[in-house]
Amino acid sequence: MSSASSSISEPSTAQQSYPDGRVALAEAAVLDDPRFSNADLAPVAIERRNWTTYNYLALWVGMAHCIPSWTLASGLVALGMDWKQAVLTIALANVIVLIPMLLTGHAGTKYGIPFPVFARASFGLRGANLPAMVRAAVACAWFGIQTWIGGEGIFLLAGKLFGDSWLNASKIQGTAWTQWLAFLVFWLIEVLVITRGMETLRKFENWAAPLVIAGALALLGFMASKAGGFGPLLDQPSALGWGSGFWKVFFPALMGMIGFWATLSLNIPDFTRFGGSQRAQLRGQALGLPTTMTLFAVLSVLVTSGSQAVYGEPIWDPIALTAKMSNVVGALFALFIVMVATLSVNIAANVVSPAYDLSNLLPRFISFRTGALITGVVGIVIMPWKLIANPHVYIFTWLGVVGGLLGTVAGILIADYWFIRRTELHLDELYKPGGRYWYTGGWNLRAVLSFAVGGLLAIGGSYSALDAQGVKQGPFPVHGMVPFLKPLADYGWAVGLASSFLLYAALSLTARRPRR
């Protein structure tokens, strides 16, 4: 290894520490290598780090109150859980994922750096592109999923206005061409908003997020009135019970719920880099994430339970459920809320992260805005309509595999930042080749090996279950891709995080201790 494996050095004169623990570049420091720096990747100046507890609380209210959050909870009901089991699963998952969220968010507030720059400390200046591209791919897929949902809202809203000729138009690839058109229209709206910049997005999110709560409460009232009160919503029994049938579904579902926010547990420095203090981001996130997601889960599972009582089957898609409303004005209002909320959440949660990641790949050529536009294109190419079509694929295959990989990255980041470096980084050297974070040609081979081993353990045993008719529910072999790893597959996120943490820490400690 290079100088990165040398002994601990004195504090750098290229950075300035403040009494509250935050660190910024010294005035004399210059980041002049366009291969590793641009205006979007550079540390946020201390005077621009002004987010408060409320800002982070509002951020989570805006991001959590989205349709995929709804389909997570309602999808558990569709898989056989009752409302208590579904809420328990989601509440526990969000308390668990909050821990790495706060641990990685610390670096953003302390140093003012986004996730891909933070990852350079453990993976190397070039190696950081490995976890950044994994995370960017996940965010692009989420962008596509949300865009498909928003397009579905436009499709059904227009159907209320134009009637059956719109809803039953000729099909392309099994879907009405008018729905493809609605998907494209919603995508174009998002692109137009993106090009107006992040400040426009932030203002839009501030007023849009509460609309989703209003819409969810209205839908709950609608279902309660149709079911004849709240009793039928609360009385729907679990198809799984509390025995072995439940636990077989619970653990992979728990990992899927964790996988839902696993990407944010990595890229939360993209937001905490603007934090006015560590206390602001800690309190804001702790108050915002678990409480908001649990409240939304309660609303969604009650409504889905109600749909089972009213229609004889659980309707886990809130847009499809809204379309059943006989009151045209009410349905139009509900669908409008779906579109506005989806637009605000999608751009905040799924454009910021890949935009920074793609900018980190080629800082000289890709700005934050260019990265955001690339995200929009990839979000179509990835065919999101297939990811969300089946709750088995959505929760177990997609979220489970994604969660396993992202847990592996989180384990390495936390081990390096907290256990090896004790939260001490050198800002200027995160942007300069040849320094302590250059390792071997820009790659930290210890991190790469830990990622490969942790990823294999986390997702190598991925398998697809059989339904009651013996039909395989997913793309993986029934006995797992690597059969002897199948017992680990249901715990992918936890396995990935723990194994990569331990392996990276062991490899780093057996080598000479890195300079902090």
UniProtKB/TrEMBL annotation:
TM region(s), chain numbering: 57-79, 85-103, 177-195, 207-225, 245-266, 287-311, 331-353, 365-383, 395-420, 441-466, 491-511
Record's keyword annotation contains Protease: no
Keyword vocabulary terms for this entry: Membrane, Transmembrane, Transmembrane helix
Main localization, broad class: membrane
Subcellular location: Membrane
Membrane topology term: Multi-pass membrane protein
Protein family: Belongs to the purine-cytosine permease (2.A.39) family.
Protein name: NCS1 family nucleobase:cation symporter-1
Organism: Streptacidiphilus alkalitolerans
